[in-house]
Amino acid sequence: MINMKKIIFMLLAATLFIACDKDMPFDPNDTEQDVFEGAAKELYFTASTENLVATEGVCVLKGPNGLIFKRNFTHIRENGESKITLDKGLRDGKYTLLYFKVDQIDGERSAAEEEVDDKESYGMGCKFSVSGTATTVESTYNEDFGMYGSGSETDPFTVSSYSHLLNLAELANDANTNCLLDSAYHYAQECDIDMDFASWRVADGYGWNPIGCSNLTPFRGHYHGKGQKITNLWSERNYSSFVALFGCVLNSRIDSLTIESARIEGYFSSAALVGCALTRGGYQDVTYISNCKVENSSILGNGSSSPTDNSLAIGGLVGTVEEYAQLYIDRCEIASSNQIIGGYAVGGLLGAGALSSKAIISNCVNNANITAYYAPCGGIVGSADSLFIVGCTNNGNIQANYGGSENEGATVIGAGGIVGGLGASHILSSVNYGNIQGQEGVAGIVGSSRISSGEDSEEGYSYNDIMVYNCENLGSIQGVKFVGGLVGESQCTIYSSLNSASVRGEDYVGGIVGESPICGIHNTINQASVEGVNQVGGIIGNSIMGAITCTQNYADVNATGNYVGGIVGLSGTYFIAHYSTNTGSVATTMSEASVGGIAGEIGDPKMWTLRDTFRIVASVATVGFGVFNASSAIKYAAMITRSSDYNRFVIDYDFTLAKQGNLNDENLSPLMSPVKSVMSDAEYNAYINSMSTQNDQTISAVRSKLQTIRAEHEIYGGFNQYHQDVLTYSTDESTMDKFFQNINDMLNERADDVAGWEKLDQRIHSAVGSACMILGGVCMIASAVASAGTSLMAWKIVATISCSVAVANNVTRACTDFEENTVVVSQCVNTGTLQCGNESSVSGLVGQLNEYGIISECLNTGAIVDTNNRNAAQLTTELRKKSIVEDCLLAGGKSWNYLDILSAKSSAEVSGIYYWTDGFIPSEYSEYSIPIVNGEDLANPDIYTELSMGANGDHWIMSQYGNLTLPVPYRSRFMD
């Protein structure tokens, strides 16, 4: 018997299959498959087809399910009405007539046009419905715009053909009609648009003239790409500005659009999507770009045909941000198939930002190689003023100085995986994988924030201040001067970050920072080799005033010159290294050098001559990425303003936006609220959530990696756990402020002591207090003037690309007028071997500790390779007047022949120093007769009370590592 239930089930299944088959992908060229065929064949139009002269062609439509298909049509126009008859009818549903493909629209076609495209596109964008044989047009035609739609959010102008973009460009670029564009208008692109023929049509030989071709006639409005593409756009305008799809935009939004196979060549402010984001005078207008991509395109300054390329502000997505304008870029991507080359200020997403502009870039990725004939250049941004970058990734290689030796006379400054050059900025949760190559200011995250020197080298440099938070570099770094794993040269705060790739340069080279006159580095690791000549450090090459806390170098440091250290090569007169570790070998081939497991030399004010200081921190300097040679005829001048006096030092870290890495609407609101003007509440909330989510994911990944690396480099049993306890204390919201305040108090107390000794009336204290600043965007903006020849008038828009720092006169005084130091090395550990020339000052801790310096509660177990060096000492080779060395353990073994060589013995204060030697008796002692002890003795806190050993809040604890028992730093002294 036939099972009726089974038959009914099979019939239902067949019905469902047929219904589902109607939604299957449709090939419009397959004549045997047509899911849209029905009875309706006729469509009627009036004004929108007034210029359609063709009598036949191909009609391109979008079906109810979003599939695009074709119909052949015939056209008759009588009495102001067009009758379109399709060769095959349509079934019931809602459709969009995208465009007509016809032999010609008007006039004769040139040979070039015939070669580009055998048919022209006549844009429609009309929505209509079909019921039986009847068709009903549901869109309203706007004759001014030549598009269907009213321009509202629910009924946007429909863009479905290059002819619509030609209409929009004509409307925008005419000063008489530009006023018709309104920032509230919406435009929606309904299909991919091939711009090859349109580019020819605009100007044979020059190509596309951008929508909003000048700053006087900008595009305004919301352009919704809806996931569609603009393909084959080309514009070869090598001596023009604002070359892009949209030239200048004002108070606009562009989203969900892909630019593919574009060819852009311009002189200034050129990019694939937007040339320049503008603002009106007295306003801070917002441009917002989201979910856009650039693929298989070339963006070339001046055509980039020679190393004399003087093009400026070349970006993959946007060329420039105008002075006082605000640009937001979110979730955009530059593909590896793109070619981006320019002269100055070249960036994967943004070329340059003018003085007092602001750019917020989040969750963006650059995969393309970025090349600049000079500099600066960066994977995300070439150069800009105020930046807030979060959750961005660069995978492309960055190369500055592409012109090489032919760039004679040019100083090439700024090459970075994320940013080449910048002003006061925050860079959060961003990662670089690309290899970076440049000259000066070269690094994996930020190249340089220098306000550059002028032609007279006596003027020197000053710097903008930046914060790098939770960032990582995995690309190799190669430069000449000011070369770092994360930051090349800048005033900076670096927090919870990591370098994992080799760093090579000549002078001022560091695993994390090359050179920073004022810096704060906390919870950061370098785990890749560092190579240089002079002032080379596992963490930082050079710093005048700084704080390095809870930070490790796990890689070898090799140099051929002077001032080489496992943590810092050379530091100035107000500096602290606390609870930091070096395990890498430290070596130089120079016969007379200062070399140390922690620091090569710290606190010698005589090193900071007036010229040297001005080279590092100056009160007068030229602005921006001053990299132009004399032939460029561009000069800069800057008035460096000073911020209000602060009584606290750089290690106060301003975590207003990033405390604990927590980004939410509450702490982002001051920064993000302007963008609300161009989006709905739901969109804004999604924007903030996306930014926060990406930030949290990167924070989790980097912090996990930091913990894993520390575990892999366990130096002594339990030490990493103690270090983690200190990190927890120093990063918890309830105790973080106390931790850094304790450090601050110690330095200030030390400064008061020194001032009292020399009766300086606390000049150092006041100088340091007024000169040093809280990082995080609190500095004032510099006023600046830029002038250019008539051929370089575009510079009036870019103006200057930097803001000021608050260093100026008082820092210079602190480094030149005073001979007293406030320098501290506290609870630091070195296990790396030391190697240098026979006449070098080499030590397991500090190569040379100068007047008034302090070494407290430190441990050295590193050996020295050369045993014939009589200037070698485990602690420090020189203890100059009023220095303090206390509560340290030296356990470097038999390789060290001498314990101390003191050049100023009478006034140095030494106490609680012990030498663990496993029975080896050195041939010579210092006059302090440092006790030689073994692990068993040290384990008795009743005997060696100076080491404060125990578990009740003391600073040392016994640790077992293999057969070795010795104390290691336990609780940070600043946790008390």
Give a short overview.
With 976 residues, the protein is of the alpha/beta class.
Outline the structure in words:
The protein is an alpha/beta fold. Helix content is 16%, strand content 37%. The chain has a 26-stranded parallel barrel. The protein has a 25-stranded parallel sheet that branches. The longest helix is centred in the last third of the chain and has 32 residues, at 681-712. The protein is elongated and about 110 Å long.
Tell me which oligomeric state these chains represent: single chain
Number of strands: 82
Secondary-structure-based class equals alpha/beta
Mean pLDDT: 77
Q: What's the shape? A: elongated
- Low-confidence segments, given as residue ranges, are 4-32, 453-459, 608-660, 757-819, 901-906
What summary fits the major beta sheet? Answer: 26 strands, parallel, barrel
Share of residues in strands: 35-45%
Helical percent range?
10-25%
What's the end-to-end separation, in Å?
90 Å
Rg over C-alpha atoms, rounded to the nearest angstrom: 33 Å
* H/I helix tally: 13
